[in-house]
Amino acid sequence: MRIRVRVNGVWYERDVEPRKLLVHFLRDDLGIKSVRVGCDTGHCGACTVLLNGMPVKSCNVLAVQADGAEIITADYGDELMERLKRAFHERHALQCGFCTSGMLLASYALLRRNPKPTEEEIREGISGVLCRCTGYQNIIEAVKAAI
Ligand code: FES
Ligand code: FES
Predict the structure, then answer these.
(1) Does 46 contact ligand 1 (Cβ within 6 A)?
(2) How far apart are CA 37 and CA 102, in angstroms?
(3) Tens digit of pLDDT for each residue in 57-98?
(4) Based on C-alpha coordinates, what's the Rg of the chain?
(5) This prediction's pTM
(6) Percent of the chain clearing pLDDT 90 (strictly above)
(7) How far, in Å, CA of 91 to CA of 112, rounded?
């Protein structure tokens, strides 16, 4: 099936198998390796992207379901995303970095809909992404710093 998606502002048109997951389409067909596969149970959130502005686990979505959609990954470079990346760097909000793309996108989605979140709202906003390294505190500090 032929699909068209707009990823980070660029339109792509490709043939995909109906059963292909969006995460594999982004990584393997479009070469966007910042979208990670961290589990096979739909729990880790490393594969998070924004689909029409909403954070989704791209391993839970078929590529064909994204036909016509606007997708944002951690490679996106607008002012808010750059601010978040800088804050993650400066606040040491990562160790192995495997969760970082998902964390950036969950934080980005949160700050877009709520530019001044409380700490509790930040915790809630990133709760769909698991981090096994940092204990979350530095990530929360980074999001606060990006406000
Ligand atoms: S790869 Fe773990 S939730 Fe998608
Ligand atoms: S930095 Fe390693 S999983 Fe979050």
Answers:
(1) yes
(2) 10
(3) 999 999 999 999 999 999 999 999 999 999 999 999 999 999
(4) 15
(5) 0.96
(6) 99
(7) 21
- β-pairing, 54-57 with 48-51? antiparallel
Mutate to test the pocket of ligand 2, among 39, 44, 99 (most ligand atoms within 8 A of CB): 99
Mode of pairing for the β-strands spanning 2-7 and 70-72:
parallel
Helices 137-146 & 79-90 angle (0-180, nearest 10): 140
Question: What confidence score (pLDDT) does residue 104 get?
Answer: 98
127, 48 Cβ separation under 8 angstroms: no
Ligand 2 atom closest to residue 97's alpha carbon, by position in its atom list? 1
Is 71 exposed, middle or buried (CB count within 10 Å of its CB: 0-12, 13-18, 19+)? buried
Q: Which atom of ligand 2 is nearest to the CA of 95?
A: 1
Out of 24, 35, 47, 73, give the residue to mutate to test ligand 1, the one with the largest number of ligand atoms within 8 Å of its CB.
47
Ligand that lies nearest to the alpha carbon of residue 22, given by its number in the listed order: 1
Q: DSSP of 11-55, one letter per residue?
A: EEEEE--TT-BHHHIIIIIS--TTS----SSS-S-TTEEEETTEE
